[in-house]
Design a protein that fits this description.
heterodimer, A: about 140 residues, alpha+beta, Sufe protein. Chain: A, 5 helices, 3 strands, globular, B: about 400 residues, alpha/beta, Aspartate Aminotransferase, domain 1, Aspartate Aminotransferase, domain 2, seven-stranded mixed beta sheet, four-stranded antiparallel beta sheet, 12 helices, 13 strands
Chain lengths: ~140, ~400
């Protein structure tokens, strides 16, 4: 299977690999996927308390090149967005941007799940109700 | 010396053809193009003579009689012919076949077909090292059993079954023994008489011969074995496999067998030394595991799991330069990782993290050096990127986490 240039670029030079301090109130952490399924994504956001803007985003991913690229792209997109804007990121945006083939769409779904999970973690930490996400098929 | 890229380390999938094989084949495409079944003119005689000679070369490699070699289009056809052919021929004796879970799909899917048409099949599980339990085999034999089908060497792990013990058990109970020896013939000594084999499938393109040609060995004496043809036609190959013989490919197959016969011993030594060097160097990485029995193994194969990195992601780090296979699901459309590795009791996570190395006649020390370096670098890089590796390093029990399975 040939990868798109954008996938190769994110894989070779992943953006925002790393770990944020998950004990901080303004850091939300999402951990999705499963080792048995061959992909696990951990995506973290650090939110500016005053403006509600995502100041920093980091990821670590166990998975194929498309999974790594999807999470790397997601962190790029998250930075500078408000939490509400971040919720609007749709997995199909990632599919389009990275030219993912049909068999790799689940990687983009996982990235969207990771964003939502990180936002929810942040919301719960800050006394906001958890958002119930629509379930997408992986 | 300049290293030419990419490096081919997927010789269990297919091997490049030896130039000496090509040379032997060439005249049979243009000048010596006759049909080996044409009995009335010299074009046919020349072709027939070439096939006879190739049949001798093939038979010699496995210590068989040339008459016992049924030429086919490859190992898949030979597997089908052996299992379906025995099932039909020995229907009056019984309808039960014994095989094992790590067989190639050509055997497993043929067995599933047998089940669909009313036969019964026992799929023996393998132990952690990939070997079947001989006591389990003997226990599975009933008065309805007509065939034991256990592969010689596994294509993914390289594990070599104890064929002589298996054939002894089969023979003791009057059951035929068939082995898919596609990965073993030409790589290690295979002797149908010493090994007690009744039927055996093997293929040209796994031993530096051409694709599209293979053989089924069918024993003619003690016992005389027969299979029902699966293709109707001109009655070629003693009535067991109709179809005009693929003369150039058969000539190439014969030459490939002759080369293996002459060079196998030194080649096996060279390849196992190279394979062990590669394996030992990669095992220096933490949390790295060799899959399958390391002793009973083909000399050129190694299957290694690099825990906490995913196989396809790993291959992407070097697949521009090195051609390998992974047991990870992501290489196929299904999400299931290798059934062979899972049969060895590996968790899905370790199966996802595996690479298969298949060394071959043209593999060099320089290529192995390059491979060791590239894989080590990629594993370290991806572990830095892996949340599972971070958890492992922090002492988090990954199995205790409730993962959301999709």
């Amino acid at each position: 299977m040939a990868y798109s240039e954008k996938v190769i670029d994110h894989y070779s030079n992943p953006k925002n690999v790393g770990t944020l301090d998950k004990s901080k109130a303004n850091v939300g952490t999402g951990l999705v996927g499963a080792p048995e399924c061959g992909d696990v994504m951990r995506l973290q956001i650090e939110v500016d308390e005053v403006s509600g803007v995502i100041r920093d985003a980091k990821f670590k991913t166990f998975g194929c090149g498309s999974a790594i690229a999807s999470s790397s792209l997601a962190t790029e997109w998250l930075k500078g967005k408000t939490v509400d804007q971040a919720l609007q990121i749709d997995n199909m945006d990632i599919v389009e941007e990275l030219h993912l083939p049909p068999v790799k769409i689940h990687c983009s779904v996982l990235a969207e799940d990771a964003i939502k999970a990180a936002i929810n973690d942040y919301r719960v930490k800050n006394g906001l109700p958890e958002l119930v996400a629509e379930k997408k098929a992986h | 010396m300049n290293l030419e890229l990419p490096i081919y380390l997927d010789n269990n999938a297919t091997t490049p053809m030896d130039p000496r094989v090509l040379e032997a084949m060439l005249p049979y495409f243009t000048q010596k193009f006759g049909n080996a079944a044409s009995r009335n003119h010299s074009f046919g005689w020349v072709a027939e003579e070439a096939v006879d000679y190739a049949r001798e070369q093939i038979a010699k490699l496995i210590n068989a009689d040339p008459k016992e070699i049924i030429l086919t289009s490859g190992a898949t056809e030979a597997d089908n012919l052996a299992i379906k052919g025995v099932y039909e021929m020995y229907a009056s004796k019984g309808n039960h076949i014994i095989t094992c879970t790590t067989e190639h799909k050509a055997v497993l899917d043929t067995c599933k077909h047998i089940e669909k048409i009313g036969g019964s099949v026992t799929y023996l599980e393998v132990k952690e090292d990939g070997l079947i339990d001989l006591a389990e085999l003997e226990k599975a034999i009933t008065d309805k059993t007509i065939l034991v089908s256990i592969m010689y060497g596994n294509n993914e792990t390289g594990v070599v079954q104890r064929v002589r013990e298996i054939s002894k058990i089969a023979r003791k109970h009057g059951v035929l023994f068939f082995t898919d020896a596609t990965q073993a013939v030409g790589k290690i000594p295979v002797d149908v008489n010493a090994d007690g084999i009744d039927l055996m499938a093997f293929s040209g393109h796994k031993m530096y011969g051409p694709k599209g040609v293979g053989a089924l060995y069918v024993r003619r004496k003690n016992p005389r074995v027969k299979v029902t043809a699966q293709m109707d036609g001109g009655g070629h190959e003693r009535g067991m496999r109709s179809g005009t013989l693929n003369v150039p490919a058969i000539v190439g197959f014969g030459k490939a067998c002759e080369l293996c016969m002459n060079e196998m011993e030194s080649e096996a030594k060279r390849l196992s030394a190279m394979r062990d060097r590669l394996e030992n160097a990669l095992m220096e990485l933490e949390e790295t595991y060799v899959n399958g029995n390391r002793e009973h193994r083909l000399p050129h194969t190694s299957n290694i799991s690099f825990k906490y990195v995913e196989g396809e992601g790993l291959m992407m780090g070097f697949n521009k330069n090195i051609a390998l296979s992974s047991g990870s699901a992501c290489t196929s459309a299904s999400l299931e990782p290798s059934y062979v590795l899972k049969a060895l009791g590996l968790g899905d996570d370790l199966a996802h993290s595996s690479l298969r190395f298949g060394l071959g006649r043209f593999t060099t020390d320089e290529q192995i050096d390059f491979t060791i370096k590239a894989i080590k670098e990629t594993v370290l890089k991806l572990r830095e990127m892996s949340p599972l590796w971070e958890m492992f390093k922090e002492g988090v029990d990954i199995n205790a986490i409730e993962w959301a399975h999709h």
